[in-house]
């Protein structure tokens, strides 16, 4: 009888060890972290051109620039919705975000990449401003992106404005780059779209990407000349923002009050969603833009 008892105890110990071993294996399999596959050589979106990132707004129930390039934010009627990553800024016809201070890292940009996710619908009655770097001495400011409420309801006419360094012989202070006509943006409404535009002061070239795809732009848009290219004209060169005061998301500089006059009737606030708004001090490469798009879409 005692012998059988020992045999039973021994068997119980073995069974107990077996189940503990199985449970530990199960725990290891559940808890072991599987590394993300790198995209374009990057593990997360903040690694993309990290040294060139000067502003970043993720809008996680906050209007703060995590890079501190733009500070002193005050929101007017600001609300948040579901974004491509967490929360997003939800614009409306009477909302915007005003910032009182802009660091030299943004003022002194020579080249630029602007990246953002937008989710919006067609509108009428004027142009909605996505963002603007104001200029106290110029009606059009320094740099901005806006969406025109014109053209077919299924397409988006977008304009980007840049301020360039100019010589006294060139009577010109800034220019619009318009995605209209044959270059109008299609399939842009009712869903999240990743919009990136870039300008290189080194090569005087402009690029735009939608959902990681580089647009095939004509030379009249892609190459920015300060004089007639057929006569050996040279490129515009570096950006040259000046008389910078404040910064605005979702509106025009005229919404900020003095020293600007009241906004014209066509100057509309942005009414869609915006997420992961970034500005870089360089024109990102194709690989960097694709990686940024895929990583942010993958919530990384």
TrEMBL record:
UniProt superkingdom: Bacteria
Signal peptide limits: none
Gene Ontology biological process terms from the UniProt entry: carbohydrate metabolic process
Record GO terms (molecular function): hydrolase activity, hydrolyzing O-glycosyl compounds
Name the record gives this protein: LamG domain-containing protein
Organism: Flavobacterium bomense
């Amino acid at each position: 009888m005692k012998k059988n008892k020992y045999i039973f105890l021994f068997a119980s110990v073995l069974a107990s060890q077996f189940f503990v071993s199985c449970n530990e294996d199960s725990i290891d399999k559940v808890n072991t972290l599987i590394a993300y596959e790198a995209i374009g050589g990057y593990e997360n979106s903040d690694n993309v051109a990290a040294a060139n990132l000067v502003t970043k707004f993720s809008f996680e129930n906050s209007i703060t620039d995590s890079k501190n390039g733009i500070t002193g934010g005050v929101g007017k009627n600001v609300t948040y919705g579901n974004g491509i990553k967490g929360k997003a800024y939800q614009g409306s016809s009477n909302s915007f975000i005003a910032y009182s201070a802009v660091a030299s890292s943004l003022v002194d940009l020579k080249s630029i990449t602007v990246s953002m996710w937008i989710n919006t619908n067609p509108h009428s009655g004027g142009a909605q401003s996505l963002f603007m770097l104001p200029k106290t001495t110029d009606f059009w400011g320094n740099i901005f992106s806006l969406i025109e409420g014109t053209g077919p309801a299924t397409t988006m006419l977008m304009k980007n404005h840049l301020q360039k360094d100019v010589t006294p012989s060139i009577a010109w202070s800034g220019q619009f780059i318009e995605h209209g006509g044959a270059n109008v943006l299609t399939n842009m409404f009712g869903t999240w779209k990743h919009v990136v535009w870039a300008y290189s002061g080194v090569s005087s070239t402009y690029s735009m990407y939608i959902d990681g795809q580089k647009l095939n732009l004509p030379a009249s848009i892609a190459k920015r000349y300060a004089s007639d290219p057929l006569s050996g004209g040279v490129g515009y060169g570096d950006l040259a923002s000046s008389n910078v005061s404040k910064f605005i998301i979702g509106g025009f500089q005229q919404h900020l009050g003095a020293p600007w006059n009241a906004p014209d009737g066509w100057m509309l606030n942005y009414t869609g969603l915006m997420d992961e708004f970034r500005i870089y001090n360089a024109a990102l490469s194709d690989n960097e833009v694709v990686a940024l798009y895929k990583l942010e879409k993958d919530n990384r």
